[in-house]
Design brief:
The chain has about 270 residues and is an alpha+beta fold. The protein has six helices and ten strands; from the N terminus they run αβαβββββββααααββ.
């Protein structure tokens, strides 16, 4: 599933083509994706100007004066800005046409993505209760330390809790814990403030670098311009179970933590 850097890369690719444009029409080739597509998408969006393209966690929001279209790419979704006469392919489920003759097309083979509606001044229930953005000032090691007190869950599970911090999925949690030298199995509540400060800094560094590299291409993710992300080529632990650690040379260990595959170095991560 695309994680925060992939979604942010998509946002940055789309924004110059969408912001300031007026929506001419909406074509829904099916009534649902993961969930039913609300009527507001086809009845209220046409005629509205796109005031901004935002990201909240792994969701993209197309903001207008009356509300926002809320998009999630799911496991295989992609968004492309295309000429208006581009032939329709299989799994091209939604077209949002623009006043300049181009269109935003949502393709999703597995249909785990979503297209929802958030009225102006309200917060959609899927976005309510989310933690801070990991690249914002509100997120740092001190915040992680305070939120972790008394928690017995593994630190990797804690870091991936969207109520604690949004958008740190499996790939980037694994890489951040490796950079900070923290064993993903260690109880969250038994990690010191100093070590959380290293982890907070690592999360920011890893995510920031992944965004500059266009995200991580695993299976289906492709940038809006059709190019793959390149951060996969720099992964130090994720997906490398049994291979030598690139720091110490010892074989990387593997376990399932919170129903997610986890890889770490038992020597470098304590």
């Amino acid at each position: 599933m695309p994680e925060l850097p992939e979604v942010e890369t998509t946002r940055r690719g789309l924004a110059p083509h969408l912001e300031g444009r007026r929506i001419h029409g909406v074509i829904l080739r099916r009534p649902d994706l993961r969930w039913p597509i609300p009527d507001e998408i086809s009845t209220l969006l046409p005629g509205q100007a796109i005031e901004g393209v935002r990201r909240r966690a792994k969701y993209l929001l197309l903001d207008t004066a009356i509300g926002s279209a809320v998009l999630h790419l799911g496991m295989s979704g992609s968004l492309r800005v295309l000429p208006g006469d581009t032939p329709v392919r299989a799994h091209d489920h939604v077209d949002i046409s623009l006043d300049n003759g181009r269109l935003l097309r949502f393709n999703d083979p597995r249909r785990f993505g979503s297209l929802l509606w958030q009225p102006a001044g309200q917060t959609h229930e899927l976005l309510a209760g989310l933690g801070p953005e990991p690249l914002d000032d509100a997120f740092d090691g001190d915040y992680l330390f305070e939120r972790s007190r008394g928690r017995k869950a593994p630190v990797k599970t804690f870091l991936m809790d969207q109520g604690i911090v949004v958008g740190v999925g499996n790939i980037y949690a694994a890489e951040s814990l490796f950079m900070a030298g923290i064993n993903p199995l260690r109880e969250a509540g038994r990690i010191s403030r100093e070590r959380y400060q290293r982890l907070g800094a690592a999360v920011k560094q890893i995510l920031g670098h992944a965004i500059t590299r266009g995200g991580t291409t695993l299976r289906d993710f492709i940038n809006p311009d059709g190019a793959p992300g390149y951060f996969e080529q720099e992964l130090l632990v994720y997906g490398r179970e049994g291979e030598p650690c690139r720091r110490c040379g010892r074989p990387l260990r593997h376990a399932t933590i919170g129903q997610r595959a986890s890889v770490w170095c038992s020597h470098c991560q304590r």
